[in-house]
Amino acid sequence: MLQRIKNFFAKELNGEEGDMLPLEENAEHPMPQDGPWIGVDLDGTLAKHDLWISKHHIGKPIPQMLNRVKMWVDRGIRVKIVTARACEADGIPPVKSWLKKQGLPDLEVTNEKDFAMIELWDDRAIQVIPNTGRPVMSGSITTRPKAPIGDIE
User: Does this model's pTM top 0.85?
Assistant: First the structure.
């Protein structure tokens, strides 16, 4: 499965197969048996979110992201829904119900990442250049951190 995910993303980025993901298999410390997965945030990423109403209210699906998740699942890529709603056990059933209504299979719903997570799609995340602590930023105001960056060097 790991090679299938690598190939998929290499095609997405370059239009051809390659080794684009920074994933290395280590014989001494193999990846967990359930394998690599992509995390997808719920509120604001997979579902529209403007104002918190309750754990039972989930906004309308965001078509582009919903289609992307369906494509990954159809291609055999493992996807988990990563949401703060899963902090409490009774927050998970409404998410599972919403996913089913959107035509998605019974995806795992969690509030945790682990060593097998290879990517996280989230409206609140700021990407950091590995091993540097420096954020990856474009010129768009929407991609700039809300927290102060500061001159820390």
Answer: no
- DSSP state string for the chain: -HHHHHHHHHHHHHSS----S-----SSSPPPTT--EEEEETBTTTB--SS---TT----B-HHHHHHHHHHHHTT--EEEE-GGGGSGGGHHHHHHHHHHTT----EEES---TTEEEEE-TT---B-TTT-PBP--S-GGGS-SS------
| Partners of residue 85 on adjacent β-strands | none
Give the pLDDT confidence of 62-87 residue by residue, as tens digits.
Answer: 999 999 999 999 999 999 999 999 99
Q: What gap in Å lies between CA 123 and CA 143, rounded to an integer?
A: 9
Q: Which domains does the chain have, with CATH numbers?
A: 2-20+33-125 (3.40.50.1000)
